[in-house]
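[09:14] KT: can someone run the structure on this one? pasting the chain below
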Amino acid sequence: MNYRLPELIGFFATLLIAFILYNQQSRTLFSAVPTPEIERESASVPANLDQDAIMTEDETTEEVTKESSEFTAVDTVVNIHHVKSGDTLYRFFIRAVKTIEDVQRIIHLLNKNKVLKKFKAGTEFKIISTKSGVKAGQVQQIIFYVDKTKVMLFRDSLTNELNLEKKPLISIKRLYEGVVNNSLYYAAQKLGIPDLITHQFARLLSHKVDFQRSIKEGDAFTIFAEIFIDPDTDKIVPGRFYYGSIILKEGKKDLYRYQNEQGDIHYFSSNAQAATRSLLKTPVPGAPISSRYGMRKHPILGYSKMHQGIDFAAPRGTRVLAAGDGVVQKAQFNGGYGNYIVVKHSPSIKTAYAHLMRFAKGVRSGTKVKQGQVIGFVGTTGRSTGPHLHYEIHLNNKKVNPNTVKLPTTKQLSAQEINRFQKQRQSIDKMMAVAQKCDQTYIVADQNAGQCVKAS
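[09:31] RB: done, structure tokens below
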């Protein structure tokens, strides 16, 4: 058999050389396939354009990564990234983009074209990049919405440079009228109201309305808001929330948008009473109350004991919001309370949050928080039988009933401001009257003339 050894070596060597040459040719062939232009944008991920939103995005916002089947054939991947609180342009794009060359070019284009003057937490960026190969991670396209505009950065197939293009969005003032049938959120979804606008309406309403006891099936509600339409994809981007109302058994609750001389946005009822109070009624919006303030048989200890707070039942990981502006006094494990936060809102008012799964990133003793900011997540730490939030209000260091304590509103209008507010309210009423006559595919062109112009 030894006399055949040189022949076998030569045969296998020839096969090996042929395989290497073929593999190199295949790689060259497939790397030469150009990345086509993206024809359409997925409309399944909502964007945040609402300049007046009181929802505060937290550092714990997760980045969603997903592949679109329309791009897999050309080896690209679609990533959705959100700006986090405290992000700068550089910090955000270093996290979201793989190559320093792309980061530098993107920031140069954004600054040159004067977009993103305010780098707002929660702003969504859709980034399409090369998935693998020698150009893995190279940005092919970026899409985001800001200031009534669609901004696109795209790679030129000839120069291989990133360029920037801006397109105006179509602005529509839309009136939504519905009836609660299961929940306010469910009814709003059926009407096609953008989630961000529904959340804002519910959050503002939660200062004066107990969602668990006051809102019933059959209650009528109205929302009037500005939305923006991307003419390329028909994607809806939420804009300004102008008005909201709900008719309850105890009467009508309404909210009007008001912009003061300094440009700050606030909401007031039709009689100029502030919509917001110093504290939210519910730090877990939409969660049912599982145990009220007062004497009760303790579920673990087995004997009757004063329950000096309210329990909200919610799935593990549900966001817990700061009930008001303030400074975190405690963020630590505290025996039967488990993971526990205390926020000081004024010399006389504090709130406490117990049994948390964990604290939001950056929340520690001394941290300043804003009303509505995520500070933690529902859990079952400490002495607890299941996931829930135990919530307390401390008034002059005494634990009081959160449902009955009288708290001041956050802002009162002067006589001059009331006059300014009433003029803005009348303007909103006129726009709503026109919108009521117009089909949802129409733009309110002139509220004084009462004309509707079809969106092109």
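[09:33] KT: thanks! The helical segments are 5-31, 69-72, 89-96, 100-112, 184-191, 195-205, 415-437.
[09:34] RB: yep, looked fine to me
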